Amino acid sequence: MNVEEEVERLKEEIKRLGKPQDDGSYKVTFGVLFNDDRCANIFEALVGTLRAAKKRKVLTYDGELLLQGVHDNVEILLKPTPTATSAEAVTKS
């Protein structure tokens, strides 16, 4: 799997495990992602995939490097997709 594919899979997993926010984004903690069996089987290097997604501005979280245990409560925010934001705007109109 290349980096782009892994980032797409990560987005799917964050949507599966995270809580939808009012703006179309999704929020999940690092601990939930890290300890999920499905994620453990998909991602060889979850932290590396998170960093790649952050670099591509797909998601955001505090800090540079997340470590199990120490950063389990760090919130990861998957930014809303442009289609989700425009769909929200149409719904609210």
Count of DSSP H/I helices? 5
| CATH hierarchy, class | Mainly Alpha
Any idea what the CATH architecture is?
A: Orthogonal Bundle
Number of strands: 4
Output the radius of gyration: 13 Å
Organism: Coffea canephora (Robusta coffee)
Protein name: Costars domain-containing protein
Family: Belongs to the costars family.
Domain Costars: 1-79
Describe what is shown at a glance.
With 93 residues, the chain is α+β, with helices and mostly antiparallel strands. The protein has helices spanning 3-17, 30-35, 37-42, 46-55, 82-92, and strands spanning 19-20, 26-29, 59-60, 75-78.
Report on this model:
- InterPro entries: Costars (IPR044302), Costars_dom (IPR027817), Costars_sf (IPR038095).
- There is one protein chain.
- The protein contains 5 helices and 4 strands, in the order H-E-E-H-H-H-E-E-H.
- It has 93 residues and is an alpha+beta fold.
- It has a 4-stranded antiparallel beta sheet.
- The model has no long low-confidence stretch (mean pLDDT 89).
List keywords for this structure.
93 residues, Arc Repressor Mutant, subunit A, 5 helices, 52% helix, globular
Write the layout of secondary structure elements.
Elements: H1 3-17, E1 19-20, E2 26-29, H2 30-35, H3 37-42, H4 46-55, E3 59-60, E4 75-78, H5 82-92
Antiparallel strand pairs: 1-2, 2-4, 3-4
Helix pairs in contact: 1-4
